[in-house]
Write a structure and sequence with these properties.
The complex is a heterodimer.
Chain A lengths: L6 E6 H11 L2 E6 L6 H10 L6 E4 L3 H13 L3 E6 L1 H17 L3 E9 L5 E5 L4 H6 L8 E3 L4 H18 L2 E7 H5 L1 E6 L43 E3 L13 H16 L2 H4 L2 E4 L6 E5 L1 H16 L4 E6 L1 E3 L3 H10 L2 E6 L5 H9 L4 E6 L8 H13 L1
Parallel strand pairs in A: 2-3, 2-4, 4-5, 5-8, 7-8, 12-13, 12-15, 15-16
Antiparallel strand pairs in A: 1-9, 5-6, 7-14, 11-13
Helix pairs in contact in A: 1-2, 1-6, 3-4, 10-13, 11-12
Chain B lengths: L22 H16 L6 E5 L7 H4 L3 E4 L5 H11 L4 E7 H7 L1 H10 L4 E6 L34 H8 L3 E6 L3 H13 L4 E6 L3 H7 L5 H11 E3 H5 L3 H4 L3 E8 L5 H15 L4
Parallel strand pairs in B: 1-2, 1-3, 3-4, 4-6, 5-6, 7-8
Antiparallel strand pairs in B: 5-8
Bound molecules: thiamine diphosphate and iron/sulfur cluster (SF4).
The site of thiamine diphosphate has 17 residues of chain B, from helix 4.
């Protein structure tokens, strides 16, 4: 008999996020209530203190991400969760986590926007905000699950990537994924791959806190462990001290971008459905990918050679895969619950190798399989 | 000449960016002397700041230091203290940093009574951005954005901190350095949220806008305007208006947030078996 304690539970997306976070070693959560993410805070408030972790409800989302970054530098894997308006507030300190290379995870359960928008309806309106919401040249990792099981596995991935690459990672849920219930197979703790930040191996007097290792990532000493150094949101040299030297500035900015861009092979995750012989491809993520998967089945029943590329990593964008696909198929359709954000990247990556069309819905309703099929038929007729 | 200060600074960061005669240097010295008196382990001290001339202080000291975003130093510090309650966490802010953009964080850190020491260098102006008025610029004084005189009412940080729930509240000045050092030392030693507001000089921005062109003019003004709590009580309402009352205003014992949270953890561990 399998000795591993692997439970199957009926979980809500937000609950699966809590489970995944705890399994990956998250021990600190700071947040501010907002629909549709609040169940993550509630779960953390209940579970973290039971296992030596800490929870604090802060005065706003700006303070929440600040506390999360603070706890991370003090050695705790940390996570915060929010939605639209709160995600907007987090952008400034998201930039701080990027420049200071402090691992943390920000969950954004997307709802309709702009502003207060549609608090209880799903959306994918924050795809570009996740990429470019904070100012300045930067790279980011953003993952988007489309099942409750994937919420669990991608939360673990998000925490692992943040530790491995010393970067904030964004987990993009949407209201449907956050609130729906599905069966989830909970892995036993010993089954879960957990990545921890690399610590310095040199003594404190030889430690350069921002000197990259061969992979471009500086080993990280937590505060309080005998390594004293400076962290700043100013561009800094390898000692962590502000610099105005053009060479140091240039190499710093390039390094914090390259450490992600050069590891796309490791970071990019996607799934293919019926793409081998496809002439028409759907590219989708999140709850829309669920509908698209169904569309593929319906289309195949009608004899149409349709397949799906389901993106689990949104940023960095899987340009190479999309480019390869564009060389194979005649048409790519990108259904999304926004006015066409991801489609821009698909167009860029396709480089004119096939036709790319957008299918948008912004009325707060889920895109359903039949309407995607309708779009396919309409395009075929053209 | 090497002094105790040299044991605590990052020499490669000097000369510092501050203007000659800026009060920030005096505060740096006072904080270091207070810490030296306490004989704290440097490895266990985190000094966190926001953005402004004053907030540059964290670059100069040899602790675990973090120069964060404008107004947000206290929530960063809250995360550090929660994660590692054994660290001594000191937060240095400017008046704009603490009371304008960071005002909400300030009252909430006080409300939680989390064991941090907040040191506010109050030069009554936005120094780094060139002399705009702040929430602590006195009424009728001038700033580059108050060219006709400031009509805003200023905050009294001492009252604000007391009302919001701090455990220790004091005000000192850069003119009264000995007293300042001992106020900082008491604040550092206090369990719970402790606050020291420091009346400081910015000859470049505040001085220039308010007809105090030299450092000496500014320090003399600070000296003349400062009164002890006792002397303050004998003043007429008119006289009180322009003065800075200095000394200790609150020193009470209340459980701090990390202590309360460790009780939550005990409770949760007793009750919780749910995964
Ligand atoms: C979000 C944000 N807004 C504005 C600024 C610009 N800024 C930099 S320092 C500063 C004011 C600093 O004044 P104060 O806190 O009083 O400190 P001082 O420079 O006087 O020591 C401002 C507004 C900023 N860095 N970030
Ligand atoms: S501008 Fe004012 S506060 Fe800033 S360094 Fe100069 S004197 Fe000090």
């Amino acid at each position: 008999m399998n000795k591993l304690k692997r439970n199957v539970e009926l979980l809500q997306g937000n609950e699966a996020c809590v489970k995944g976070a705890i399994l990956s070693g998250v021990r600190f959560f700071a947040g501010y209530p907002i629909t549709p993410s609040s169940e993550i805070a509630e779960g953390m408030a209940r579970l973290l203190p039971q296992i030596g972790g800490k929870f604090v409800q802060m005065e706003d989302e700006i303070a929440s991400i600040a506390a999360v970054i603070g706890a991370s530098i003090a050695g705790f894997k940390s996570l915060t969760a929010t939605s639209g308006p709160g995600f907007s507030l987090k952008q400034e300190n998201l930039g701080f986590a990027i420049i200071s290379e402090i691992p943390c995870v920000i969950v954004n359960a997307q709802r309709g926007g702009p502003s207060t928008g549609l608090p209880t309806k799903p959306s994918q309106g924050d795809m570009m905000q996740a990429r470019w919401g904070t100012h300045g040249d930067h790279s980011i990792i953003a993952l988007a699950p489309s099942t409750v099981n994937e919420v669990l596995t991608l939360t673990i991935k998000a925490v692992n990537f943040s530790e491995k690459y010393r970067t904030p990672v964004i987990l993009l849920l949407d209201e449907v994924i956050a609130h729906m219930r599905e069966k989830v197979e909970i892995p036993a703790p010993e089954e879960v791959e957990v990545i921890n930040r690399k610590k310095p191996t040199v003594p404190p007097e030889e430690y350069f806190p921002f000197k990259p290792d061969q992979n471009g990532i500086p080993p990280m000493a937590n505060f309080g462990e005998g390594y004293r150094y400076h962290i700043t949101g100013l561009i800094h040299n390898q000692k962590g001290l502000p610099t105005s030297n053009p060479q140091e500035i240039d190499s710093f900015i390039r390094r914090i971008n390259n450490k992600i861009q050069e590891n796309v092979k490791d970071i990019i995750i996607y799934e293919k459905y019926f793409l081998d012989d496809a002439k028409i491809a759907l590219i989708a993520c999140g709850s829309v990918a669920r509908a698209a998967e169904r569309t593929v089945k319906l289309a195949r029943e009608e004899g149409l050679k349709v397949g799906l590329l389901k993106l689990l990593t949104i940023w960095p964008f899987p340009s190479e895969e999309v480019n390869r696909l564009a060389q194979q198929v005649d048409l790519i359709i990108v259904p999304e619950m926004n006015l066409g954000q991801m489609v821009l990247e698909v167009e860029r990556a396709s480089r004119g190798n096939c036709e790319v069309v957008s299918y948008s819905r912004v009325d707060g309703e889920l895109i359903n399989p039949i309407e995607i099929l309708g779009k396919i038929q309409e395009e075929i007729k053209k | 000449m090497k002094t105790v200060i040299n044991n605590y600074i990052r020499e490669e960061m000097f000369p510092n960016i501050w203007c000659p005669g800026c009060g920030n240097g005096i505060v740096l010295g006072a904080i270091i002397r207070a810490i030296d008196d306490l004989k704290w382990d440097k490895n266990k001290i985190a000094m966190i700041s926001g953005i402004g001339c004053s907030s540059r202080i964290t670059g100069y000291v040899d602790f675990c230091t973090m120069n964060t975003t404008h107004g947000r130093a206290l929530p960063f510090a809250t995360g550090i203290k929660m994660a590692n309650p054994n660290m001594k966490v000191v937060v240095v802010m400017g008046d704009g940093d603490c009371s304008a953009i960071g005002g909400n964080h300030f009252i909430h850190a006080a409300r939680r009574n989390i064991d941090l020491t907040a040191i506010i260098i109050n030069n009554m102006i936005y120094g780094m951005t060139g002399g705009q008025y702040s929430p602590l610029t006195p009424t009728k004084k001038f700033g580059t954005t108050a060219p006709y005189g400031n009509i805003d009412q200023s905050f009294d940080l001492v009252k604000l901190a007391k009302a919001a729930g701090a455990s220790y509240v004091a005000r000192g000045t850069v003119y009264h350095v000995r007293q300042l050092t001992s106020l900082i030392k008491k604040a550092l030693n206090k369990k719970g949220f402790s606050v020291v507001e420091i009346i400081s000089d910015c000859p470049i921005s505040y001085g220039k806008m308010n007809k105090m062109r030299t450092v000496v003019d500014m320090l003399k003004w600070i000296k003349d305007m400062s009164v002890s709590k006792k002397a303050w009580e004998d003043l007429s309402p008119e006289e009180k208006k322009e003065k800075f009352v200095i000394g200790e205003f609150l020193d009470i014992d209340r459980p701090d947030y990390t202590e309360l949270y460790s009780k939550v953890m005990e409770e949760a561990q007793k009750m919780g078996v749910s995964r």
